[in-house]
Automatic annotation (TrEMBL), chain A:
Pfam families: Aminotran_5. It comes from Micromonospora sonchi. Belongs to the class-V pyridoxal-phosphate-dependent aminotransferase family. NifS/IscS subfamily. Keywords: Aminotransferase, Iron, Iron-sulfur, Metal-binding, Pyridoxal phosphate, Transferase. It comes from the Bacteria. This is Aminotransferase. It catalyses: (sulfur carrier)-H + L-cysteine = (sulfur carrier)-SH + L-alanine. Gene3D superfamilies: Aspartate Aminotransferase, domain 1, Type I PLP-dependent aspartate aminotransferase-like (Major domain). GO terms for molecular function: cysteine desulfurase activity; iron-sulfur cluster binding; metal ion binding; transaminase activity. Its cofactor is pyridoxal 5'-phosphate. Residues 6-363 form the Aminotransferase class V domain.
Automatic annotation (TrEMBL), chain B:
SUPFAM superfamilies: SirA-like (SSF64307). Belongs to the sulfur carrier protein TusA family. Pfam families: TusA. It comes from the Bacteria. It comes from Micromonospora sonchi. CDD domains: SirA_YedF_YeeD. Residues 16-40 form the UPF0033 domain. This is UPF0033 domain-containing protein.
Length: 383, 81
């Protein structure tokens, strides 16, 4: 019998929120025209786009003219980093970032360095918490144009001290970019940042919509060829039906965020406790207290990460991994590496509004046996 | 958190060649061999899989052995107990 599927990879993409589905279907009929043209169907599209922007801005507590829709979260992150650096090139060329940023931010940093810029990486401790003293020294250094900090780790769930990091940036006169992909619509938006990005598929919006917010007064300059759309920040036409769905589901998910966090955080606590107690030689990683409500990561000694994902998939469980054998580059997760925790046999479980207690119980009931079988097959029992 | 880097004083008591092996194989080889050596012995594990540089120090921490440092693909571990 094929087991019923249990999807536990919301940190990659949450299942489509019912509000998103409803808005998407309506907007497919009503929002196909170009919002910038001067005829009736275009004006209707413009109304939909304006309403989506106002709803998203209102949910995040920003002004509508500060918020642009992008083609996805990755291009939003690229725009935030490269645009923040371009706008401050007279102040310097140094990008300060934590060691646990998303790869989209790190790849933008690599591009900046390849073009003659510089990057300064700030370490984290074993729980994945930013070294605030090192951060404060780094942002106060000479020639810093921009600082980038992830609001909460997408790999291990540790929530970062964004407001304290922002205060250090403010003292140094350096704008802060916050990658809020995992916290928007799950936790309150922190204060003190100049640029913020998010990704709709993380909150149950459709794939292919990102948010780029640039606070008024921030020196930000588009790194892309000129285009008048989205206040000149994002080239090309937006996918309007998807944007409408993203904004509607953002409002719905944010309205439920506190209740969902109160429901999911104890399930994550249960996973953390039961995995540590019932699976031998496992390291549950990330901060147990200051963490995302929906995400937990652990590493199983002597277990091949790819084999573990396949074994879980055969039992119907969809999870992701930071182990090197599961990445195209065959390198371990830079986040696990920066924390100094075990990288092989790694599993990230992330819950969503459709996750039930029964789903979690079935996962917890089956996991110890799956890992024991893999260890028996590899001949590593008792090592 | 980066691993201590640099040469280890003196030669190791034994060398375990795991070059070309992908993780978790070098860690498994280490876990098989180290308990067979006397307490205080130093084992050099040659492993060029990038994950080994993360996972060998982590294994030492989990098992209570001394991770002495890494030079290139050479990782040095002392049996502590």
């Amino acid at each position: 019998m094929i087991p019923s599927p249990v999807y536990l990879d919301a940190a990659t993409a949450a299942p489509l929120h019912p509000v998103a589905r409803q808005a998407l279907l309506a907007a497919l009929d009503d929002g196909w025209a170009d919002p910038d043209r001067l005829y009736a169907s275009a004006r209707r599209a413009r109304q939909l786009l304006d309403a989506a922007r106002e709803a998203a801005a209102d949910t995040l507590g920003v002004r509508p003219d500060e918020l642009s829709f992008t083609a996805n979260g990755t291009t939003a992150a690229h725009s935030a980093v490269l645009g923040g650096l371009a706008g401050r090139r007279r102040a310097g060329t140094v990008l300060v970032h934590s060691a646990i940023e998303h790869s989209a931010v790190l790849h933008a940093a690599e591009r900046h360095v390849a073009g003659g810029g510089a990057a300064s990486e700030v370490p984290v401790d074993r729980l994945g918490r930013l070294d605030l003293d090192a951060w404060s020294r780094a942002v106060a250094g000479p020639g810093v144009a921009l600082a980038a900090l992830i609001a909460a780790s997408h790999e291990v769930g540790t929530v970062q001290p964004v407001e304290a990091a922002a205060a250090a940036c403010a003292d140094a006169g350096v704008p802060l970019y916050v990658d809020a992909a995992q916290t928007v619509a799950r936790m309150p938006v922190p204060a003190g940042w100049s640029v913020l990005t998010a990704s709709a598929r993380k909150w149950g919006g459709p794939p292919g919509v990102g948010l780029l917010v640039v606070r008024k007064g921030t020196r930000w300059e588009s790194p892309w060829p000129a285009d008048e759309r989205e206040a000149g920040r994002v080239p090309g036409t937006v996918n309007l039906p998807a944007v409408v769905a993203a904004a509607a589901s953002l409002r719905a998910a944010a309205a439920d965020a506190a209740a969902e966090a109160a429901r999911l955080a104890p399930l994550v606590d249960r996973i953390r406790a039961r995995v540590a107690a019932e699976v031998p030689d496992v390291e549950v990683v990330g901060d147990p207290e200051r963490r995302l409500p929906h995400l937990v990561t652990f590493s199983c000694l002597y277990v091949d990460g790819e084999a573990l994902l396949h074994a879980l998939d055969r039992r119907g469980f969809a999870v992701s991994s930071g182990s090197s054998c599961t990445s195209s580059t065959l390198r371990p997760s830079h986040v696990l590496e920066a924390m100094g925790v075990l990288s092989h046999g790694n599993v990230r479980v992330s819950l969503h509004r459709g996750t039930t207690e029964a789903d979690v119980e079935r996962f917890l009931a089956e996991l110890p046996g799956i890992i024991a079988d893999l260890r028996a097959q590899a001949g590593v029992v008792g090592l | 958190m980066t691993a201590p880097e640099g040469p280890v004083a003196g030669e190791p008591d034994e060398v375990l060649d795991c070059l070309g092996q992908r993780c978790p194989l070098p860690v498994i080889a280490l876990a098989r061999r180290l308990p067979e050596l006397p307490v205080g012995a130093v084992l050099r594990v040659l492993a060029d899989d990038p994950a080994a540089a993360v996972d060998i120090p982590a294994w030492c921490r989990m098992r209570g052995h001394d991770f002495l440092g890494t030079t290139g693909p050479a990782h040095h571990i002392r049996r502590a107990r």
